[in-house]
Design goal:
Chain A is an alpha/beta fold and 343 residues long. The first copy, chain A, contains twelve helices and twelve strands. Chain B binds a DNA duplex (30 and 30 nucleotides) through helix 2 and helix 4.
Chain lengths: 343, 343
DNA sequence: TCGATTCATGCAAGCCTTTACATTGAACGC
DNA sequence: GCGTTCAATGTAAAGGCTTGCATGAATCGA
């Protein structure tokens, strides 16, 4: 057995007794090569254990069939379902996806985007619209089709497939208010780093305003997304005055953290305080009582995003902007406020 | 503003009035270039918005500073914490990581590994030892340092950093048995696709044998990892005879699914049936009662794996095999079996 | 002041594929 | 039997970067 440091196209061509061009064609356009030749080539390929050098291929063809997805975090399941559907759809169309995460840091996001582009991503999936305009300029200059998801905002010029975070959260807030709550707290993601979180805050405020409540009474606690953070957020908002009777959370992970903390403190949900979430992860139904939350069609969103990008990259079909519907799911953590607390 | 389709090294070199070699050096070995020149180059780089073509760079240098991680799934948080620590450690050493998932399908794993190697991964992180030996041959032939994690088995020849799944699960089973349980069921991952799941099964059997119970009485239900699957697994094992008094699960996600189902059926945990998990995810503490489970030092494991790989790739320090300790964490879901059920 | 070092830089080959274009040979129509 | 097509294959350039080697300038020691 000879020492065989990474066989190249050339090695294959020699072994098969053809030119490198033919090998390349046999691999990429099997029908543009005679049956017999193809077989000879394939045999050589397997015999040698050849696998094409990605960099070289990318350089020569100016195409990678790779799509980059830049998400804020992999640490919780928030993006998992959507991403998985995205990946599956794209795989079906012959694309591979590269995932990068940013920890919600704008500068890391920039690095990740540049890195993905340098790696030859043919297209990009981004979460939310808001980011340094320079990035969009860069992407346009590099001619990388970019699709925004997890958000829908018709006033934005870029194509997107997502939902209206503000409207979605407003609908949930409407339910909370309808239940009789007036002292509402919100445990939210960092609005400055996260336009979805920001939109959700506005959603709650919208609902309050519509109901004749003063939006400035909304007690907002901003934090990063996580179960532990939800627990700490619970402490923070429960200590503030007036004590809220309903705590809305802009993510399920925050909500279950809050619920955990409530139990630790002997505060019962929803009797003593109502809690709502956002996302409708599986998580929402393993807690008790099951979490009232906003359903988001993650899988559908991922699938459609994948399809749009695939079409754009193969047919050139331009990507449009499509809105997906969300819906408040009433389960066990939302109930009317206790009486006697009314001022 | 001229139309500037992706500036190259050459463009930069012209603008800076130096050769491409100098630009390359200015970028990669800043101290091997005169201060003034470097500044001129850097200015040109930013003016042009240059960013190096990854494929070309990889091809020329035969190095990518990229490490691939192939994990079974991103769908649940099982690998998230470990992976994040891995990524952070490696980033600190100047490496980028590429994550690919396999859905526990051996053939997908092969594809992913090949793809990562073709993409030029300088090193690889794999979960568990067990896979087609051909893969290891391939990796050796391609000269890609590979580290196994999430498992520790001194009988395996490959370097690894992980824990002994069998011993870890045995320790948990010991607690269950010590509590008085004899009718034990196990909701497990697919042992044929997952050597960790297999080892955990053996761990329970070991404990039973040690306690004088017949290991063949262990009621095993194999499924894929997921909350929903845990719920279905609960149904399955509770319907079998004899009805178990303790249900061990080889993952927390399975356990919380089982707990959810128990509540839906009005079966209380741990009064009617005990349930244990494995992993000690945050999830384990948001359910009620909090889940008795096996603590696994995910973050530590990821960090060490990252360090080992980084060392190997920079210094050439060979990667060893290191074992990490796990520990049963007794919380609320394990209690003695109800009396009267004893046959 | 002059040869020997050292430092900064340039030259050009090489990395592995794809692909436009050229070539070959066979099949075909007349 | 001959010119024409067409399918199959080959040739060679291009793609963007790194790096061994060569070169020239500056520095140093005596």
């Amino acid at each position: 057995m000879s020492n065989n440091p990474t066989p190249t196209l050339y090695d294959v061509s020699e072994k098969a007794g053809v030119s490198t061009a033919t090998v390349s064609r046999a691999l990429n356009f099997p029908d543009r090569v005679a049956e017999k030749t193809r077989k000879r080539v394939m045999d050589a390929v397997t015999a040698l254990g050849y696998s094409p050098n990605f960099g070289a291929r990318a350089m020569a063809s100016r195409r990678t069939n790779t799509i980059g997805a830049v998400i804020p975090t992999m640490a919780n399941a928030m993006f998992a379902r959507g991403l998985q559907a995205f990946e599956e759809e794209l795989r079906r169309h012959g694309f591979t996806i590269l995932v990068a995460s940013t920890s919600y840091q704008p500068n890391i996001e920039i690095d990740q985007i540049r890195s993905l582009v340098a790696r030859g991503a043919d297209g990009l999936l981004l979460i939310g619209h808001h980011r340094d305009p320079e990035i969009y300029d860069f992407l346009k200059a590099q001619d990388v089709p970019t699709l925004v998801t997890w958000a829908y905002d018709p006033s934005e010029p870029r194509p997107s497939v997502g939902f209206d975070n503000r409207v979605a959260m407003k609908a949930m807030a409407n339910e909370v208010i309808k239940m009789g709550h007036t002292k509402i707290a919100l445990i939210s993601g960092e609005s400055s780093l996260n336009d979805r979180a920001d939109a959700r805050i506005h959603g709650v405020e919208d609902a309050m305003a519509d109901a004749g409540l003063d939006p400035s009474d909304l007690n907002i606690h901003e934090t990063t997304f996580g179960i532990e953070e939800g627990a700490r957020g619970f402490d923070a908002v429960m200590m503030s005055m007036p004590r809220p009777t309903a705590i809305m959370c802009s993510a399920d992970v925050l909500a279950v953290g809050a619920m955990r903390r409530a139990r630790e403190l002997g505060i019962s949900v929803p009797e003593d305080v109502s809690i709502t979430g956002f996302d409708d992860l599986e998580l929402a139904q393993v807690v008790h009582p099951p979490l009232t939350t906003v359903f988001v069609p993650h899988a559908e969103m991922g699938r459609r995003a994948g399809l749009a990008l695939a079409r754009q990259l193969t047919d050139g079909t331009p990507m449009g902007t499509t809105e997906l519907a969300t819906q408040p799911i009433l389960r066990g953590t939302l109930a009317p406020p206790k009486d006697g607390t009314s001022d």
